[in-house]
Amino acid sequence: MSDVIVYGFPVSTYVNVVRLVLAHKGVPFEFHDLEPEMGGTTHLALHPFGRVPILEHDGFRIYETSAIAAYVDEAFTGPALQPANARERARMNQWVSALNGYYYPNIAFHLGHERLIYPALRIAPDEKVVSVALPRIATALDVMERELAHGREFLVTDAPTLADFFMLPTMTTLSLTGEGHGMLAATPRIAAWQARMEALPSVIEVRSMVAPHIGKPVEHARAWVTSHRPRY
Ligand SMILES: N[C@@H](CCC(=O)N[C@@H](CS)C(=O)NCC(=O)O)C(=O)O
Is any atom of ligand 1 closer than 6 Å to the C-beta of 13? Predict the structure, then answer.
């Protein structure tokens, strides 16, 4: 039994950021599928805001993906995922913040819910939500495509940092949607970055954990129509 446990539901974007970081550091972990407990007392005891992931390590429990990822990088050996250089570290944190503020909300939350999560539950998509998200996604992709023009292998340096692992699950969600697939065909540098990421052994390992759950209904997401969907 591992002394590291990740709590979450299998297709969660942020859960998969944590699984990627752990895998890349070479840290073995158990996965506790919270799907049947989402929103209940056992879940809220782990995360008072009702979200995932939560990480437990040897009696220490923490939530919020940025805090978990930095903790994993600092508490375990394995490749350093936060650059020592202050400017590179600032750039990495800029990417993590941009993911949280712009990429994840428009790609995973709005487009991903309407095109992947709700249809799997036989809930009709709200085209207005999609039409508001798409131009914002186009802007975000344009920013990323231009950043990747600097010739680095990954977003910040020539080795992956937390920035890359934060971005990957959201970009994977984008590529699973029809609109996203089309947009990514016009961003060759993002496509090349994604291919480099997908060739990493850690990414291959985590993908194999997630693959059986792709396209399956996320039952607790039925409530998101009222709790998460914007009303324009
Ligand atoms: N600020 C949180 C956000 C986590 C988050 O939004 N997780 C989503 C899954 S990707 C979630 O828990 N959704 C469940 C729900 O809203 O019911 C973090 O960085 O960990």
Answer: yes
